[in-house]
Amino acid sequence: MDQKASLQLVIIEDTTHKAEALVSALRDAGFTLCIDRVQDLDALTGLINQSEPDLVLCGSGAELPELKAVTTLFAERNSAIPVIALADETTKNSARSARRNGATALVAYDKPDSLLTVLEKEQQTILLRRQVRLLEKRLFETEKCCRDLMESSRHAIAYVRESRHIHANNSYLDLFGFCGTDEIEGTAVMDIIDSVDHSKLGKFLRSHDTDDNISGTLEVRGVEAGNNTFDAVMEFSPARLNDEPCTQLVIRHREDLELEEKLDSHNRQDMLTGLCNRQHFMQVVDNSIRESAGPGQSQAIAYILLDNPKSMREKIGVAGSDMVVNDIARLIESTCQQHDIVARFSDYVFTLLHDDSNGDDVLQLAETLREKVSEHESDIEGHVVTTTCSIGICVINEHTGTAQDVLSRADLACEVARSSGGNQIHIHSMAVDEKMGAQNEEEWDAVISTTISEERFYLAYQAIASLNGNAGGYYEVLLRILDENGDVMLPGQFLSIAEKIGKSGEIDRWVIDTAFRVLMEKRSSGFDLGFFIKLSEKTLSDRELPVWINRKLKEYRLKSDSICFEIPEAVALKDLKNTTRFVKAMQKIHCMVAIEHFGCTSQPQLIQHLPVDLVKIDGSLITGLATSKEQQEKLKSVIDLARKSDIPCVAECVDSASDLAKLWEFGVNFIQGNFVQEPGRNLAHDFEGEFV
């Protein structure tokens, strides 16, 4: 068998030694056995009531139950468990007799190889039976969970067949004044609604082909306990109960439904501006991509970032900044078309899903928005506040992947616009993505080799600020890549291809060397800075890299503790051996190592086995933290785990003051994100006392 972890074996014998040779043969073949020995049918019945075995060996002793009785017991339970009869010796007649009595085979006590042969034939059946038992168990647990949820639901739920009740939960019984399930069974659905709506319900039910395929909603007057009537919404949907087709009926008060709709609307809205929030916008974009009609129609995402939000906060405070943000939200909303979806994506970022667009159309809208934002004046307690915005655009077409993909492209385009001076618009080139996706490996090799040889790279930097008032500061080093036309390519896409064709190590060395040179220049000018530098998966397997890093540190006269190398959590888990070797090599030369995207897998205990210096908590746990109890609980557990190992935490993707407040409350050591500083080419962030 392929899965020899355990074999549940029942031996029907009156002594332990008779089947000893067979048991030893199974163990020698690699099976881990869990053995139960019984001597009569009662004991066998009690055993299989608890759990079904994989295999039964039925001995032939005079005091033991007959083979026919054993196989009949399993047949009555519809259990196709192999029963192998045991005998002192076997003949053709005895083998035929055993099979007539229901045995799978007859095996002699002193012929263990025969048992292995039989088991080899039965292995697939045993594995399938295990899977079936597991699925049946999961189905039972799922059905029980569904029943428990239905019974505990505050919604009134019933099951109906042929327009009569067959079951209802407590909320349903209480609503209509029934004392129990027995009382409502067989009662017509007509009996729970006002007589004035009987014809309306009858017409609705007759409009469906069968009683078991009823779906839809109907508004009627319900008759609750005490004969009071109420505005009800009946929701019908096909269902099954006790493996029989039926209809599920949910009764809601119209007032409750309206309240739920209002609450759902609030959950989709940003509390400050009333626009869509980030989560709802992402869902809308994902749905839009899936439902896209294809080449004939297209949409576009605009990523709108207010320039210089930090100086705005310093001038008028957070409350005043919120007033400006609200003003800009109204301006964007009034400028957009009727079918456009506008969201407040983070504190100072708006996103726009523009429908039925082409490059010229969305560019014209973006230019209008840019001009209106730059011309707008907000009066904040006597201060006239003006601002500008940078806009990144990505057109959605048949090559688009997910909402996250298109937002990443629009974000990147916005960064190009902002880093070029702000108050500008940049459109992401989908042609670049299509070209990169269409190349074969030989063409990729040429494109990437040319990019490397022409050094069409530059570095951007994003500040990492301390929440504990520590002196000095760190930046994360980010790689930016240009195509032959000067358009920015997605780093993740480019680097993943480079990794496939063995070029990622060469790029990593360019980044390290360039970053070391820049850091030397800044430290020579009196700036107490450090760099976080990302490493690719293939680079970790380069045994010469630590020696090369040490040589470069000496060449640029850098303190090794000013450098922290970042390894993605998924890469560390995939290649723990090389990751551990690299971490230990860095410890010897006193460079730091951080695990980034920490907490995005189900194995956060990684840091208990890997001696890293920091962890960078994945942005999926940070974005929207202030409003998500689930994220808060998960984040707390991740931070607690790091704290037990005495490892400081860096929170990635911090884009809002509300998220920052929670991170401070939870004891995060450092933060990184657009709230601190957007990525840019300049190292000009003021670290002194910003969050002290």
Q: Any idea of the CATH class of one domain?
A: Alpha Beta
Number of helices: 23
Query: Which fold does the CATH topology of one domain refer to?
Result: Alpha-Beta Plaits
- Give the C-alpha Rg: 34 Å
- What structural class results from the helix and strand content? alpha/beta
What is the helical fraction, as a range of percent? 40-55%
Structural description of this entry:
The protein has 23 helices and 26 strands. The model has no long low-confidence stretch (mean pLDDT 84). The strands form five sheets. Strands 18-19-21-22-23-24-25-26 form an eight-stranded mixed barrel. It is α/β, with parallel strands linked by helices. Among the domains are: 7-143, Rossmann fold (3-Layer(aba) Sandwich); 153-259, 2-Layer Sandwich (Beta-Lactamase); 268-428, Alpha-Beta Plaits (2-Layer Sandwich), CATH 3.30.70. Strand 1 (7-12), helix 1 (20-28) and strand 2 (33-38) form a beta-alpha-beta unit. The two termini are 63 Å apart. Helix 1 crosses helix 5 (112-152) and helix 11 (309-335) packs across helix 12.
